Amino acid sequence: MAILDILTLPDAALKQVSEPVTEFDQALRAFIDDLEETRRNGPAAVGIAAPQVGHFRRIVIVDCSTTRKPVPNHGYLVLVNPEITHWEGYEPGREGCLSVPDYTGNVIRATRIHLVAKDPDGNALEFDMEGYEARAVQHEIDHLDGLLFVDRVVSRRTDLFKRKVYQKGGKPAS
Amino acid sequence: MTDNWYMLTLIGEDKPGIVAAVTKGLFDLGLNLGETSMLRLGGNFTIMMMVSGVLGEEALRGHLQPIVESQGMCLHVDPIRAHLHEHVLPNIQVTVTGADRAGIVAQVTAALAAAGFNILDLESDVAGTTHKPVYILQIAGISELPVERIEATLDPLRADGVDVNVTAIETYIG
Question: Is B174–A156 a contact, with Cβ atoms under 8 angstroms apart?
Fold first, then answer.
């Protein structure tokens, strides 16, 4: 296993869209081992996406089981070709990124999602996720699509007024 | 030669072009921007910015004054000791809303200070209407106390008709 170099802003490669994984082989599993070792080496990293280490395939890892205050979660997850098929609700939350050192900001994410993906052996996975774990997956899938959380940061002031307007319409849009 | 750090405070009636004019002036003087806050408050544009450079305080003030005056703004300059890359992450957010009346901020922050809560960021606004104003306060900070203890500290305000919401901030890093 190896700790891989993490791409950081302003590396243009972080904007690259990653390709789906087609071969579920030993090379994939070896890469996932390296990606996980890299995540564990990152300061307080809960998740990581393959393009953050310059590997432009649709692979992410999240583990929301170690938060200070326990949150609903599915433990350590390797998600290959993850796809969100349903979004619901939205809420702001603070995010940071291994690829954007020394900066955190508020990002609005869906509060509940339905997710389909493959495991490293190509078996189908399916999850309903909420809150922090749903945020984690949305953050990491953004990496696969060449987006960083800084592309989505809102000020608390802006968020306040947005919510005020949304509430006029009754139920928040999903 | 070691750079000097200054905190510049600029205030004036809001209009387009203030930031462009001021920051061009700073750039032309060879000054670098650090962290800044630029915000419209009640029709005024307010700027607080860390700047660094080799200019002494009087020279800085002398060069900047005409630029600032051309924008109809007031300038205040403070030499400061400052460093970049020293962000501190908040772990608690407090949101307060209530009918606008004198003393809300003083009461909330006094209760928080007594609990050892360190405010990192506070934004407040008056929403609602002229006849029915609503005060909204958002505070992010650091406390070693659990959410429940901070809630309890703010309980007396609830009895007074103010809505107080305390939540833990779990920053996602991925």
Answer: no
Of the candidates A46, A69, A98, the beta carbon closest to that of B168 is on: A69
CATH of the domain at B42: 3.30.70.260
Count other Cβ atoms within 10 Å, centred on residue B70. 11
What distance lies between CA A79 and its chain's CA centroid?
Answer: 10
- 0.90 exceeded by pTM: no
- How many structural domains is chain A composed of? 1
- A54: CATH: 3.90.45.10
pLDDT 10s digits, A77-110: 999 999 999 999 999 899 999 999 989 999 999 9
A chain contacts of residue B136, beta-carbon cutoff 8 Å: 160
Q: Which residues of A touch B125 (CB under 8 A)?
A: 157, 160
Q: Is residue B124 part of a domain?
A: yes
Active site residues of A: 140
Chain A hits for B39, CB-CB cut-off 8 Å, are: 157
Residue B36 belongs to a domain: yes
Q: Tell me how far apart the alpha carbons of residues A9 and A149 are, in angstroms, rounded to a whole number.
A: 12
Q: Which domain holds residue B138?
A: 92-168
How far, in whole angstroms, is CA A97 from its chain's centroid? Answer: 10
Q: Is residue B87 part of a domain?
A: no
Percent residues over pLDDT 70 in chain A: 89
Predicted-complex ipTM score: 0.85
Cβ-based neighbours of B159, under 8 Å, separated by 6 or more: none
Residues A139, B171: C-beta atoms closer than 8 Å: no
d(CA B147, CA B111): 14
Place of tokens 């789906």: A20
| Within a domain: A5 | no
